[in-house]
Specification:
This protein is an alpha/beta fold and 222 residues long. Helices cover 31% and strands 20% of the residues. Strands 3-2-1-4-5-7-6 form a seven-stranded mixed beta sheet, with helices on both faces. Helix 2 links the parallel strand 1 and strand 2. The longest helix has 11 residues. 41% of the residues are buried.
C-alpha cells in the first residue's frame, strides 16, 4: 500500500489460487465472488487476485491501488486501475464514474485505513441493492495473539496481524458490528486458521473468534 516503488505483496510471477490450500484466505475470499461479476477490487496490488477473477471466474474488474508501480502491473488484468488513496474523497468520485458494480472486493485493506467505518459507508453507497461486499481482515482475537498478549508481548512486524502498517484492529465480533452499523447483512463467513496446534483444532473450531487467523466475509446491501 506504500506509495513508493517498493511493492509489499508482489508474488513475482503467476499466482495460482486454485492450487492453494482449501482454507487459505485468498481461496476462501475469491470463492465468495460469483462468476461473471463486475468487481471493484480495492487495493488490487499487482493484480495477482485480479488475474484469478478475470481468467478463472470470468469477471470484469476495476482496481484501485495506491502504489503506482503495482497499479501499472495490475493493468495487465484489470479493465481499469484507479491510482490513489482510498481515504481521499476524490478517489471515490472517480470510482462512481466507472459505472455500477455487482461486487466490491477488499482483501486485507480495511485494517490499513485510518477510518475504516467511513470506508464501509462509502462501499455501501456505491453498491446497488443486492450488491455484495466481500472483505478479508486479520483477527486480533486469534488464539496466538491472545497468548502473546497474555505473556505481555506486542511486537510490530513486517507482515501478519501485527503488521506495523495496520491502523485498526478487528475481531470477528467487532467486524460484524461495523458491517451491521453500515447497514450490511452478513451472508457468509469463512475462516483461515493459518495452521496452529492441531490437537486444539476441534475445540477452536467451536469458537471462530479464537480459531480464525484471517476472516473472509460476504455481506449484502439490502
Amino acid at each position: 500500500m506504500a506509495p513508493s516503488g517498493k511493492i509489499k505483496y508482489d508474488w513475482g510471477g503467476e499466482y495460482d489460487v486454485d492450487a492453494l490450500a482449501d482454507d487459505n484466505i485468498d481461496k476462501l475470499s475469491t470463492s465468495l465472488i460469483p462468476n461473471t461479476s463486475r468487481v471493484l477490487e480495492l487495493g488490487c496490488s499487482t493484480g495477482y487476485l485480479t488475474q484469478h477473477l478475470v481468467q478463472d471466474k470470468n469477471c470484469q474488474v476495476v482496481g484501485v491501488e495506491l502504489n503506482p508501480v503495482a497499479a501499472k502491473k495490475a493493468q495487465k488484468y484489470a479493465s481499469e486501475v484507479i491510482v490513489g488513496n482510498l481515504e481521499n474523497a476524490a478517489i471515490w468520485a472517480k470510482i462512481k464514474k466507472s459505472g455500477k458494480f455487482d461486487v466490491v472486493f477488499a482483501s486485507a485493506i480495511i485494517e490499513h485505513l485510518t477510518d475504516p467505518w467511513l470506508a464501509l459507508r462509502r462501499v455501501y453507497n456505491i453498491l446497488p441493492p443486492g450488491g455484495l461486499f466481500v472483505l478479508t481482515f486479520p483477527n486480533i482475537a486469534w488464539w496466538r495473539c491472545r497468548l502473546s498478549l497474555l505473556l505481555g508481548r506486542w511486537k510490530y512486524e513486517d507482515y501478519g496481524i501485527f503488521d506495523r502498517t495496520h491502523n485498526k484492529f478487528f475481531t470477528l465480533f467487532s467486524m460484524r458490528q461495523a458491517l451491521s452499523h453500515a447497514e450490511f447483512k452478513i451472508l457468509k463467513e469463512k475462516y483461515d486458521p493459518a495452521g496452529g496446534a492441531k490437537f486444539l483444532t476441534p475445540i477452536l473450531k467451536l469458537f471462530p473468534n479464537a480459531y480464525a487467523h484471517q476472516i473472509a466475509i460476504s455481506a449484502q446491501k439490502s
